[in-house]
């Protein structure tokens, strides 16, 4: 917490016995130690940025040429090849939505038990809390593309790898938010149910679920919205969806088709955002 510390130096010419001297003291928002710490933090940040710029191999000629290359690419993309949309892009978009939806459902099958174990007011066994937290952190620490590469190696290229990649990537996000929502619930209803002889399952169903239900649906809709966007690029590593069509168009330099795919992804993401917003407004 910041503190206001007065300097003992008085204004020049002020008599030492002047009763108004305290009002003429110089007040500082931070102590000298706090000011030094703030400057050290800024110094570390600047040093980190300079170190990163010196370590990353950036070719200045490419940076200078980038605007011209971007303009040339945009010219090649215009006009989009809208005739390419159906059926190839359309079917790939539908598959992308299926991957996002099934991945989200499977994610909740895994995330709900982990969230119950991670919530300290639901599961009072500390080793289980730690194991659940470790599982949630492990899920969040691996990017969806990395999960996709792993599951492509297991299941082979296709939508199945995408579904499992989306699910395992989402478990950490969903489980952490659900565990926090569970820990913030009021324990009064549970204690009343326990005093009346209700079982542990009845405590969760009648005392906990009504409190976390808004958070549950909000998290589900928000995660599905994120998964729609993430599943659009899983095809770049062979996990199905519209990313596969995009990768083929880029590899064959079919920039008009690339523009069509990008426009289709943009429209789907916007529609998903609208749907999620309206459904959430009705449910919560």
UniProtKB/TrEMBL annotation:
Domain ABC transmembrane type-1: 93-276
Main localization of the protein described in the UniProt heading: membrane
A Pfam family annotated for this UniProt entry: BPD_transp_1
Keywords, sorted A to Z: Cell membrane, Membrane, Transmembrane, Transmembrane helix, Transport
Cellular localization per UniProt: Cell membrane
GO molecular function: ABC-type phosphonate transporter activity
One GO cellular component term noted in the UniProt record for this chain: plasma membrane
Domain of life: Bacteria
Key word Magnesium present: no
Transmembrane annotation, as ranges: 39-56, 97-119, 145-168, 258-276
Membrane topology (UniProt): Multi-pass membrane protein
Family, per entry: Belongs to the binding-protein-dependent transport system permease family.
Name assigned to this protein: Phosphonate ABC transporter, permease protein PhnE
Biological source species: Pseudoroseomonas cervicalis ATCC 49957
């Amino acid at each position: 917490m910041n503190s206001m510390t007065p300097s003992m130096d008085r204004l020049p010419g002020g008599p030492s016995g002047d009763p108004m001297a305290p009002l003429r003291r110089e007040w500082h928002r931070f102590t000298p130690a706090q000011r030094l710490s703030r400057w050290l933090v800024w110094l570390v940040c600047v040093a980190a940025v300079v170190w990163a710029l010196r370590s990353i191999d950036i070719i200045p000629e490419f940076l200078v040429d980038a605007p011209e290359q971007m303009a040339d690419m945009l010219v090649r993309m215009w006009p989009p090849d809208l005739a390419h949309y159906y059926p190839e892009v359309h079917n790939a978009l539908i598959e992308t939505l299926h991957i996002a939806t099934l991945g989200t459902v499977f994610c909740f099958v895994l995330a709900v038990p982990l969230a119950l174990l991670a919530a300290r007011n639901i599961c009072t066994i500390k080793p289980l809390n730690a194991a659940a937290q470790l599982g949630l952190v492990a899920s969040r620490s691996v990017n969806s593309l990395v999960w996709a590469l792993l599951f492509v190696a297991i299941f082979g290229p296709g939508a199945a790898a995408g579904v499992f990649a989306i699910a395992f990537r989402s478990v950490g996000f969903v489980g952490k938010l659900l565990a926090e929502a569970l820990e913030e619930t009021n324990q009064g209803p549970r204690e009343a149910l326990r005093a009346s002889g209700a079982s542990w399952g009845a405590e969760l169903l009648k005392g906990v679920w009504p409190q976390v239900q808004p958070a549950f649906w909000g998290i589900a809709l928000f995660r599905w919205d994120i998964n729609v966007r993430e599943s659009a690029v899983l095809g770049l590593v062979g996990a199905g969806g519209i990313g596969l069509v995009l990768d083929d168009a880029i590899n064959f330099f079919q920039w008009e088709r690339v523009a069509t795919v990008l426009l289709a992804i943009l429209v789907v993401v916007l529609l998903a955002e609208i749907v999620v917003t309206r459904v959430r407004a009705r449910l919560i």
